[in-house]
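Board notes (copied after class):
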Amino acid sequence: MERLQLKVTIDRPVGYQDDFGNIYPINYGYIAGVIAGDGEEQDAYVLSTSDEPLNEFTGYLVAIIRRKDDVEDKWVVAEANQSYSAQEIYQAVEFLEKYFDSEVELVK
């Protein structure tokens, strides 16, 4: 998959606490109109140089989190001028991915 420019609608901003007690250190949301494996809109982690809670974010697809034990993958969207290693991405999303057998696939 090539690097796509995407708009993420943030529904779990930095500081959000979910029903399981996880506190989100990064913004998290979905790509409107793109349907994932679970039949819902595609979820996306947002990696940004800002740590402020956002309502929306436009950036580029830099990685896909492949979950081997789930029906859906997660996308990682970042600013155009930023690049991350697979290890850096995993460290940023580990707060949720630690519950899954997942791996980071970088998008070139």
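Comment from the instructor: The radius of gyration is 13 Å. The mean pLDDT is 94.
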